[in-house]
Amino acid sequence: MSVTYGMEFSGIYGRIKDYANISNVTNADTKAKQAANDALRLISVMRYWEQLRREATINALVASQVAYTISTFAASFDRIISCWYKSNGVRYEIVIVDDGMWNVESDSESDGTPEICRVTKADGTLKIEFSPTPDASFISNYTNIYFDYVKKPAELSGDTDVPEIPDTSQQMAIVYLGVSDLLGKQGDLSGLTAWEAKAIRLLNTAHKIDDRKTGRTPRFGKPLMPINHSMGSRMPDYEE
Fold this sequence. Notes:
The protein is α+β, with helices and mostly antiparallel strands. The chain has 6 helices and 10 strands, in the order ααβββββαββββαβαα. About 35% of the residues lie in helices and about 20% in strands. The strands form 3 sheets. A 4-stranded antiparallel beta sheet has the order 1-10-3-4, with no helix packed on it. A 4-stranded mixed beta sheet has the order 2-8-7-5, with helices on one face.
């Protein structure tokens, strides 16, 4: 279901042009639109946004098959959150590991009940691998493997498009980061830093929401790397 409430793309890139003072620059619309979508992609990796969270089911398990192409089961996959199988309503975790741990812990010659998995693009196609490899008994008993993932946000293109993230009250962060990017590209480092700070203050709200949900001590927002990778001053990082 498409997003229908919030700032429309025309208002977002219009503000970016205005605040970055590029309205009279050649291809101003194109530059502002690119900055907006760059900001959107950056914001998407700052948090597990509930709006982007999805659940997928690998429902075509084959005995002794190690890897499964993710795009077959998960649209617009960006990164995995958790993986599991179920028995009588009870969820059993399959631990997600990185490549280093996979190289140590995986056993390519064993079939059975999967204990670990990883996401890899070693052969050029994004896949999820399991170890031990699911065997016929596992498939007969459990049928499916499930995983939660974060999908990529839909890029903004039409003037009436509304961004999926961040939350409506924080959508000006896209504008602020877009302005920061464009000012940085013009060599205005003080402007870059000031507009980035405005975005951070808004996005801190999302962190505070997370903290209230989990009972953690409130944090400073995680500093953003400017989209054009210019170096400016930074706010203190929060502890992971």
